[in-house]
TrEMBL record:
One of its GO terms (molecular function) is protein-lysine N-methyltransferase activity. It holds the Pfam family Methyltransf_31. It comes from Aegithalos caudatus. Keywords: Cytoplasm, Methyltransferase, Nucleus, S-adenosyl-L-methionine, Transferase. This is EFMT2 methyltransferase.
């Protein structure tokens, strides 16, 4: 990931391109619409887990959210997101190099946690993916307040699989609509987007 974000950082410096938006613009719109529909207060503390280029946080800030934090374990990703934040003039976004599987003590008390693809990436880790998924769920339980919301977008996991992964300490609130496709007479989704609440 460092190499990928170093390339994106160089491209941003060369031509101002912020790089890949995981799951596209509509994934950000889907998250912001849900927050607005449920009248989530603009001063709620929001953590973007695996922020990458930080574009989601910029969009949240443009929508009026004020208490925004992005973490990524890749220093190059945080450098890129800092540059994107500067370009957009969003000085209120906090960014930190942080490994979510071993979060620091000050990473706690969030009202909302958002994940677009980070759980997917952790799930693909060739060394002990099952153990790392358990660490992720444990970290989420530590950083998210009781009754807090967790919004996850995944292309690797079905709704049923995610319900199973997050059964300890979280309950499903809602499945967000995502594009559907039909293959062999069956309808499916290429992306799953769910909202959980911490018990």
């Amino acid at each position: 990931w460092d190499a990928a974000y170093e390339r994106e950082l160089q491209t941003f410096q060369d031509i101002g391109d912020t790089g890949e938006i995981w799951f596209g613009e509509e994934s950000m719109v889907r998250i912001i619409r849900w927050l607005e529909k449920h009248k989530v207060p603009l001063d709620s503390s929001v953590l973007d887990i695996g922020t990458g280029n930080g574009v989601l946080l910029v969009e949240l800030a443009k929508s009026g959210y004020m208490n925004l934090t992005g973490i990524d374990y890749s220093p190059s990703a945080i450098q890129l997101s800092e540059k994107v934040r500067e370009k957009e003039g969003m000085s209120n976004i906090k960014l930190k190099v942080e490994d979510f599987l071993a979060p620091s003590a000050e990473l706690s008390g969030f009202d909302i946690c958002i994940d677009k693809g980070t759980f997917d990436a952790i799930s693909l880790d060739p060394s002990d993916a099952v153990g790392k998924r358990k660490l992720y769920v444990g970290s989420l339980g530590r950083v998210l307040k009781p009754e807090g919301f967790f919004l996850i977008t995944s292309c690797n996991w079905t709704k049923e699989e995610l319900l199973n992964e997050f059964r300890e300490g979280f309950e499903i609130l809602e499945e967000l609509p995502t594009p559907k496709f039909c293959f062999g007479g069956r309808i499916g989704n290429s992306v799953t987007a769910l909202v959980f609440q911490r018990k």
